[in-house]
Structure formats: structure tokens, C-alpha cells
Amino acid sequence: MNISAIGQDSHCFEQDGSTKPLLLGGVVIKGARGLKGNSDADVVLHALVNALSGISGETVLGKITDEMCLKHGITNSRAYVERALATLGGARLMHVSISLECRDPKIEPVCRTIRESVAAMLGLPLLHVCLTATSGEGLTAFGRGEGIAALVIVSAEVKS
After folding, report:
1. Which stretches within 6-110 are classed as H helix?
2. At what angle do helices 43-56 and 77-85 cross, to 10 degrees?
């Protein structure tokens, strides 16, 4: 049986002068302000974790990642993805679609690099990881440049 699940996350940018790097899909985006959060605040990976939780039925982002971050100092969101992947059991990931809403940074120059990073994390061919981005014509805080929002849809084959 094939199933799909959606994950969402958003963060606002750090204040000007912050040295925290911006990470999207595990990739450092040079010249961009980082996002606020206890962890690295990688909205792509956080939304991915939420989507993976939708496949497995086990919520990872929240209590589990808070413990990893606040109690054990694990702030790299790649570790959260690994934890979410461990909940999938026999489910086989088939496709991931990522949508970002932001004014800055421009996503097109780093699109392929982010796709490659996510594909490698999930063991998927590059063609099975899609990334699109929009400014939303400035209608939301993300489109006005206050932060970044991510939506991720994951499709998987699950043995019934």
C-alpha cells in the first residue's frame, strides 16, 4: 500500500548581527541569517521529520527532539531525521516533495545542493526529491522576509 504524509515547520530569522548559520536541508547557506530555534532550526529537516512521523505514526519533533536537544545537546537536525527514519519499520520511502516560502535567501542557486543533501540522507535517487520555492508575493511574514516556512510531503510504500 502506498501512503503519503505532510510535515510543516517555520522559524523566524535571528536578529541582525547573529553568527548562527542558515541551514536548509542540511546545507549551510552562505551569506544568509540563521533561523531562531534551540537546535540548528533547519526548517526543511524539521518539516521532513514531521512528514516521516506521519508515515510511521510516531511523533518525533517535539518531546523526543526536545530531549535530544535540551538534555543531550544534540542540535544537528540530521540526527532528528535519523531518529524519524528509525521509526519507519518496513516502510520504503519513494518520493519527497519540499516547498519553501521565503523572500530571502534565493533558493534557486542552492536548490540542487539541498536536493542532493536530502536525497543522500534518505537513500533516494535525486529524481525522487523535489524542491520548489515561492515568495508568496509577500502576502505572509515569510514572503515579507521575516523567516522561512517549509512544507514536505513524503510518499512511502508500506506493507499492510
Report:
1. 43-56, 63-66, 77-85
2. 10
Q: Which CATH architecture has domain 2-157?
A: 2-Layer Sandwich (3.30)
Q: Which three cell numbers stand for residue 91?
A: 516502510
> CA-based Rg of the chain, rounded to a whole angstrom?
15
- Exposure string (b/e) for 55-94, b if CB count within 10 Å is 16 or more? bbeeebbeebbeebbeeeebbbbbbbbebbbebbeebebe
Give the domain ranges of the chain. 2-157
Cα 45 from Cα 42, distance rounded (Å): 6
Please tell me the predicted confidence (pLDDT) of residue 73. Answer: 93
Rounded CA-CA distance 24/44 in Å is 6
Give the model confidence (pLDDT) of 89-146 as tens digits. 989 999 999 999 999 999 999 999 999 999 999 999 999 999 999 999 989 999 999 9
Contact criterion met (CB below 8 Å) for 150 and 5 = no
